[in-house]
Amino acid sequence: MKIEFTLNGIHRVIESAPTEPAWPHLAEEGAREGRCRGGNCLRCAVLLGDRPVPSCILPVYRLQGAHVTTLVGMGENPLFLDIMRAFDKVGISRCEDALPGLVMLAYQIISEKSIPSDMDIQDYSRYLVTRCAGRDEFERAVRLAGRLQGRRKADRRERVSR
Amino acid sequence: MSTRAGRTYSLSTPDVLEPATLSDLLQILKREPEIPIWSGGTWWMDRGMRRTRLVALHGVAELKRVVRSDIRVDVGAAVSVGRLREAGGRFLPPPLVAALDQLGPPPVRNLATLGGALSIREGSLPVAVVLQLLDSRAEIRRQGHTRWASINKIDLVPGEVLTRIRIPLRLRTHWMLHHFGTAFPISPPSLTVAASATVEKSSLEELHAAILINGVHFIRLREAESEVVGRSLPLTERDLRTILGALEEERAFRNDLDDLGRWRATGTLRQFLRTL
Prior knowledge:
The complex is a heterodimer. Chain A is an alpha+beta fold. Chain A has 5 helices and 5 strands. Chain A folds into 2 domains: 2-73, Roll (Ubiquitin-like (UB roll)), CATH 3.10.20; 78-161, [2Fe-2S]-binding domain (DNA polymerase, domain 1), CATH 1.10.150.120. In chain A, 41% of the residues lie in helices and 14% in strands. In chain A, a hairpin with a 2-residue loop joins strand 3 and strand 4. In chain A, helix 2 crosses helix 3 (99-113) and helix 4 (118-125) packs across helix 5 (135-161). Chain B has 2 domains: 63-168, Uridine Diphospho-n-acetylenolpyruvylglucosamine Reductase, domain 3; 174-275, Enolase-like, domain 1.
């Protein structure tokens, strides 16, 4: 079947069987190959619209008309920039294997909860399956990214009200 | 493709039918009862299932609604677990929230749906035990016909689709959910033990206990539960024996669990009853 979608802002047309995994079609734009093939390792996570999903178990027909963003395409996203700044501040390594999962988990927590509580962050961090970042470091980074994002939103509101 | 009302529903390709309304979906299922129904698709993708023709539920508006009243919540079968968890975190019963969390990491939950988790033919996931415990029911529809089924009796025949899950919102003061083994994919040996209770003025107002063995055998202890309801707390050793004795008499408990599994099931249940 012919599938049209937007990948990192670029219109794409691919030909594929409908229930093939989406990952191979996103790989050249930065989606990494998962190790688990079940969506648990989060290496292959991408944004489908505004929600992170594992591309290894994402059927290709779901791409039809969708906006997909890989880690490579998130460069201009303000929340992504805050997350990366927080990761650098806390000292989380930019390991290529672990980064997609770490960033996507952090992205989901902050976009869902704005200012997440410690309990929320702990709920999510138990899904980390990497040795490149400890849970403590990840939780500190998410807290910091949440604060940065909150400050950015407050600044924006202030500018609008002026 | 046009419907009886003269409207058209989106049909991206001849291979994947994407109805926009429930009536369109039911018409497709009437015409092609054997067509595979894909909701989140996580189960099929995880198992490497490939299909060339299917009907996808992600565009059906009626199946993506969560309707809440004071006494119950109706969850559309195609609501993603992630959205349900996000929207219902404040009002869904805590054991259900815990069971939803067991369906996988947040990115998987963004794809997976509650309807999909309950429609697996190979067995049941822990979330089904909790829904059973909460006395939830599932609405199953085909063209011109609707039926309600208990969560452990969702046997979809060709042409039928699970459309919504009705969850009563009753206050329960105590609950527990323990899962041993792999929850997803369903692979023996696995054991889920869940229980909930309502305690008021030092007496047991309500007790529900459910056990799922190897993702296949459901055990509910309704008679034993009703025997101990109304007793003053803490429960006596005799009351505990009533419940645990009823469990030990179940054939699936004796035949499908090894010694460790039996010990875990009785141990967790005993511990829960003692905390009341």
